[in-house]
Amino acid sequence: MTEKRLCTSTGSSARTGGFETPVAYRVLEALGEHRATEVPAPDIAAALSCNPDDVRRAVGAMRRLGYSVSDCHGAGIRLVTETDVIVRSHLVEGLGTRALGRLPVCFLELDSTNAVATRSALAGAAHGTVVLAEHQKAGRGRLGRNWFSPPGVGLWFSLILRYELTAARSWMLTLGAAVALADAVEASTGIRPDVRWPNDLYLNDRKLAGILTELRGVDRVDFAVLGIGINVNQDEDDFPVGLQNTATSLRCVTGRAFDRTALLAEALRALEAVFASLDADRIRERWKGKARMLGKPVCIMTGAGPVRGVAEDVGTDGALLVRGVDGVVRRVLAGDVGGGTLI
Ligand code: BTN
């Protein structure tokens, strides 16, 4: 069994800011690729150039996350859980993007992919690097909220973006990402999510996906970390009680499980296509075409208190334009509610 057959290495550590996919994830990839047979730990270790104890530790970590891994009287180990495994080489092979997603760094478990992507960007990681985790222990949402990120059922990833962009135009990343993700979900599943200002995707009035854009830079954006969470294969009772009436997944809506590698690839292609021109008018128009909230009553929580009225439009600066009962149109800026948070 060769390393190439098990898992092709797809990124150079220098281009990802010194961050590499740890052995625990590489063992998961190996087991994901050899589901039908028991593979002895020493064979996996040899193929991955690591120690059999590393393989055993990785299996322990997988089990702690709830994966069922059989170990048949020393004959070998096998991934029993049916969860699909995102194998980097498979992702990159069929991707077809120029930059986005071509350097994947994947973790079994970490605190937040946005936090790791920020560290790797500060260490020089290239534009397009993607940091992905099976499980986030402290997934970050907007406004200091947590993002529920259980293992094996969602897409939790962050992209490092190094576009020539002023901070004032960075709203395009969040609104553009919402458009791209809606396109990707539609292309992969046939269902059309609704975008909600500034950063959410909804299906049947429940949240399917969220975007957390974090920026480094003052006037110009040095880099952006675009964090994306998509609920893919959760059942309804996989969500904590507090989220069961507000969150949904593609599986909850369709009754089917989806291949996360294919959806991730579709999302990366769609993101690259939308960001190809970073054309503000085009992003606004495309976003408005997917936003059912326009023309409807809204209540937007901002630092200065709630803004109530009818959502009329998105301004040329990415602000949501809300007409109050007094007839006055108020601009709610993306920055007010976390469309682009300075890190
Ligand atoms: C929101 O709707 O509040 C934004 C949620 C963003 C969640 C994603 S999951 C991957 C990335 N890493 C994080 O810690 N958060 C984002």
Overall tally of domains: 3
Small molecules held by this entry? biotin
Distance between the termini: 44 Å
CATH superfamily of the largest domain: Bira Bifunctional Protein, Domain 2
Major sheet details? 8 strands, mixed
**Number of distinct helices:** 10
What's the mean pLDDT score?
A: 91
Per DSSP E runs of 2 or more residues, the count of β-strands stands at: 14
Shape: globular
Which fold name fills CATH's third level, the topology of the largest domain?
BirA Bifunctional Protein, domain 2
Radius of gyration, whole Å: 21 Å
CATH architecture descriptor name of the largest domain: 2-Layer Sandwich
CATH class of the largest domain: Alpha Beta
Question: Which structural category do the helix and sheet elements fall into?
Answer: alpha+beta
- Helix coverage percent of residues? 25-40%
Strand content: 15-25%
What is the H/E string? HHHHEEHEHEEHEEEEHHHEEEEE
Weakly predicted, low-confidence segments: 1-11, 335-343
Describe what is shown at a glance.
The protein has 343 residues and is of the alpha+beta class.
Chain-wise SSE layout:
Layout lengths: L2 H4 L16 H11 L7 H8 L3 H13 L4 E3 L5 E3 L8 H6 L10 E7 L2 H10 L7 E7 L17 E8 L9 H19 L4 E3 L3 E4 L2 E11 L6 E9 L18 H5 L5 H16 L4 H9 L8 E6 L2 E10 L5 E4 L5 E4 L8 E2 L1
Parallel strand pairs: 3-4, 8-14
Antiparallel strand pairs: 1-2, 4-5, 5-9, 6-7, 7-8, 8-9, 10-11, 11-12, 12-13
Helix pairs in contact: 2-4, 3-4, 7-9, 7-10
The site of biotin (BTN) has 22 residues, from helix 6, strand 5, strand 8 and strand 9.
